[in-house]
Amino acid sequence: MAPLSPDLILALTAGDHVADQGPSGFIGHYGSDGWDFATRVTRRGGDPYGGENISYGYDTAREVIIQLLVDDNIADRGHRVNLFRDGYVRAGVSCGPHAVFNHMCVIDYGYEPVKRR
């Protein structure tokens, strides 16, 4: 597992999702416009290859990571898998208020950027 470097586009993409879901109280990986992670990141000019973790109800970094590691009620343990996935080298994080769960945190992950010719 490589260390993750901060990525502005992924942070903006995560922030877009917090800004969309927070006030509405929606949950999940799709925004109110139906867009998923790949669509949001592409709209910001990034590569659509990566993944996303979302935590609801926890307001410290420690609590968020513990919740994602334990990954209760997620059959495939997808959040845990994302935390340890080989190949992710970049990440962007945004946290904010959520109308139902008080807090939410989005972590968007990316692979090595695609080389353009």
TrEMBL record:
It comes from Brevundimonas goettingensis. This is CAP domain-containing protein. Residues 1-107 form the SCP domain. InterPro entries: CAP_dom, CAP_sf. Pfam families: CAP (PF00188).
